[in-house]
Recover the amino acids of this structure.
């Protein structure tokens, strides 16, 4: 195994204000986040032989690496497989707010999961932040971890009653220090009455996970990259098969691929994939108070600073403008709206130096699915349904799965059980299922363009050819690349994502790069070749 941290920063070609080169290889899109541009990650080799370990973990994002780290500390031998470099999924696209102020409000969590459930949710996210802080301290990781307060406010003109209700519910859930303040500590705009969640945190996720990966290897763990798992079987002789034909045998398997690639339907009806957008703007150092800021819009805006020594000035990170994956393709307009929203509130913003997007899996009842994979062998575990709280949900996965795999009780296991049915979420479940089913009408519609030759260079479009739909990508040199537009997961028709140069499935969020290679599950295989290419 090769572990090399002496190489250049991966995204070194991207300077502030200089974007646009293609970095997509084995990443989840073209865009580059502030973290990708400012971190050095260790590299690892492919899996070249058959191996075995106590636990095999598929996916080297925050969920997979935290699980591997904690299992390694507990004395288990672990193998981690990822089909990109480490942390090349959604974790490198995060904004890394570490919060107990969850995306789904405590008012809703109490309704959906009861008082005890809301309490356990608060407790587990708090424990996750503490766990990250502990790892940072024990491993002496220089990753800009710091405790900051979080501020939740309503958009202008809206009643702030929701904040009063949320304060009562959060306190009831055990977050007794949550309190109301007259406004958030932002001088350039008056947020009005604001709910303050003290003792949240922020960090540089890639610097953190680079060190975690090295600690896994130090503890005897093995990490293999560019290694795509194609088949995952549990049972007495659990076995993971890779695209290149190697296998890993293990006593337990953890599928931490953001959305499970080993599960056909059970989980994918209980969560929906959304794209979310982020801009990073330079701001003079010290003009904006450090903190985490959110409004209650739907979709909501999320704001923080990155004050990393690796970039010359502070970067104000503003996210929002979410839409369902594969159902809209107007990223440019969304970045513009985000910028307008941010400039109106933070007039000290100068250049927009980063623009990136990523994917979040939105669970119907607000909490992640962590535990045994439904309708599978007892030794196959999953971690998914992160919503916008994947840093803490991924860390909770590490703690919870480490306990479950060792046969230890964990008070959070029922709350996060992937098999749970949450009665109060039936309406959302029905709405999401209807939306998903409606996507199959794409089989009947015409293509985006009539003929392949009309696809502009550097772009893609779906073309109808008889009964078939073809995903046609025209590279910058004008060469056409064709694949079937039918998603190998459950037959949705993919749509071109101009901004990330990917094919995105509107049904459950699978994504494929311009050549048809799968980059996001639940699909585990690539778009199929076209059987009868046209004569050009
Ligand atoms: C723009 C944005 C902002 C966000 N902001 C926040 C925030 O402020 N706070 C917060 O808590 N959360 C936030 N999130 C959510 C959080 O970033 C994610 O939920 C989290 O990073 C997901 O981690 P993961 O380990 O589950 O998945 P990933 O990081 O996606 O890791 C999964 C890995 O599995 C690999 N993989 C997939 N299929 C296979 C296969 N078949 N074989 C081998 N490997 C495979 C992928 O290559 C990938 O590396 C945000 C997300 C986005 C997109
Ligand atoms: S992601 Fe399920 S059909 Fe494409």
């Amino acid at each position: 195994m090769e572990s090399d941290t002496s190489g250049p920063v991966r995204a070194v070609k991207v300077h502030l204000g200089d974007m646009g080169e293609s970095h997509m290889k084995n990443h989840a899109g073209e865009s580059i986040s502030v973290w990708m541009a400012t971190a050095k990650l260790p590299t690892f080799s492919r899996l070249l032989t058959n191996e075995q370990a106590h636990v095999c973990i598929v996916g080297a994002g925050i969920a997979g690496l935290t699980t591997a780290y904690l299992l390694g500390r507990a004395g288990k031998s672990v193998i981690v497989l990822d089909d990109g470099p480490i942390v090349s999924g959604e974790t490198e696209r995060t904004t890394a707010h570490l919060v107990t102020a969850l995306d789904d409000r405590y008012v809703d969590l109490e309704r959906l999961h009861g008082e005890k459930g809301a309490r356990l949710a608060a407790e587990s996210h708090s424990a996750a932040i503490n766990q990250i802080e502990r790892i940072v301290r024990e491993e002496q990781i220089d990753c800009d971890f710091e405790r900051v307060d979080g501020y939740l406010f309503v958009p202008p003109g809206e009643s702030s009653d929701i904040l009063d209700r949320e304060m009562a519910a959060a306190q009831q859930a055990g977050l007794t220090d949550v309190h109301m303040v007259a406004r958030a500590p932002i001088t350039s705009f008056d947020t009005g009455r604001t709910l303050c969640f003290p003792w949240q945190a922020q960090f540089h996720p890639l610097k953190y996970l680079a060190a975690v990966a090295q600690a896994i290897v130090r503890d005897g763990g093995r990490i293999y990259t560019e290694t795509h798992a194609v088949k995952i079987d549990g049972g007495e002789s659990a076995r993971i098969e890779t695209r290149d034909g190697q296998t890993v045998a293990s006593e337990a398997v953890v599928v931490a691929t953001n959305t499970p690639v080993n599960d056909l339907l059970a989980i994918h009806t209980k969560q929906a994939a959304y794209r979310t957008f982020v801009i990073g703007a330079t701001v003079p150092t010290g003009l904006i108070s450090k903190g985490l800021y959110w409004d209650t819009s739907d979709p909501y805006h999320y704001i923080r600073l990155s004050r990393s020594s690796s970039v010359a000035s502070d970067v104000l990170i503003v996210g929002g403008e979410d839409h369902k994956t594969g159902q809209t393709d107007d990223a440019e307009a969304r970045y513009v709206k985000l910028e307008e929203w941010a400039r109106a509130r933070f007039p000290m913003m100068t250049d927009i130096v980063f623009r990136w997007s990523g994917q979040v899996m939105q669970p119907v009842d607000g909490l992640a699915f962590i535990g045994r994979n439904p309708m599978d062998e007892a030794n196959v575990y999953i971690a998914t349904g992160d919503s916008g709280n994947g840093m803490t949900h991924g860390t909770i996965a590490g703690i919870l799965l480490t306990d479950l795999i060792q046969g230890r009780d964990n008070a959070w296991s029922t709350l996060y059980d992937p098999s749970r049915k949450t009665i109060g979420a039936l309406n959302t479940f029905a709405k999401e299922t209807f939306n998903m089913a409606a996507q199959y009408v794409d089989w009947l519609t015409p293509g985006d363009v009539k003929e392949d030759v009309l696809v502009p260079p550097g772009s893609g479009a779906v073309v109808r050819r008889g009964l078939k739909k073809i995903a046609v990508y025209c590279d910058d040199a004008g060469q056409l690349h064709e694949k079937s537009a039918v998603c190998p997961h459950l037959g949705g028709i993919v749509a071109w994502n101009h901004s990330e140069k990917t094919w995105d499935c509107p049904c459950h969020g699978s994504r494929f790069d311009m050549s048809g290679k799968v980059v996001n599950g639940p699909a585990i295989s690539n778009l199929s070749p076209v059987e009868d290419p046209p004569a050009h």
The first strand starts at residue 51 and ends at 58.
